[in-house]
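ok here's Os01g0558800 protein:
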Amino acid sequence: MLPALLPGCLAAPPPPPPLVTTSSTASPSAHLRTLRLPSGLAVSRRAGFGEAARAAATERGAIEEEEEEEEGFPEWGNGDEDEYDHDPEIGDIMGEYFDDPNKAQSRMEERIKKKRHKIVQAKTGSPNPMKVVFNKFDFSNSYIWFEFYHALLPKDVTLICDALRSWHIVGRLGGCNSMNMQLSQLPLDCQRPTYDALEGANTTPTSFYNIGDLEIQDNIARVWVDIGIHEPLLLDILLNALTTINSDHVGIKQVQFGGSEFQNWSEDLKTEEAGYSVHKI
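and the structure:
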């Protein structure tokens, strides 16, 4: 009875129309739609555009990376990771940073605490200013005497010898010439300093003729010098360096220029058992 009351409503729907293909060997890729980006990058898509948008974003990222390289920004992953070979622990910490920044920060702080003595070194010198005395100092033939607060350690001896050696080299090359101080005589607010090469070449040259070995007896040391000419700038440079050594590295109680005797120095003590040593400058 229902078919009579509802004619056509209960009839079976017609079958769907057959698919039309351009070729009898059509592949699944025939349903794909091809989008061509402005740069010529072809992206095969189905009905949606999400994948095309991602491809466009990827291309934009590549362009931005090229621009960063042109501007001089560092490129990640271009061999920089090789630097971690020098310190594998740093490489391990940096590898965890993107996954767990808090953990990486904690590990870095713990590492700094453990190695603080290597990173930040406390001053080992003296808080007291170094006393400077002149005793008939002759620029061409005199001793320079040093009195330290304690007997020198091997590293302290190395530091003093290096300082004296550097001082001698600069002086021997004529670097301590008070007659040619063009830049230091310019006004403090000078923005574009100039240097007269002709004036510098015509200045009377200076030199540092000779220097002896560093001799040490307990906490007393001396070095013989033959500067050759009267050049106080050489002494100023040495005293500036010794001032820093005294405050930061090795406590120097007193420096004396000139004199054949100093404190309890004995010319008869020439053995290692008596605390005597000689170090080449």
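+1. The helical segments are 2-5, 50-71, 88-97, 101-114, 116-119, 154-172, 197-202, 232-248.
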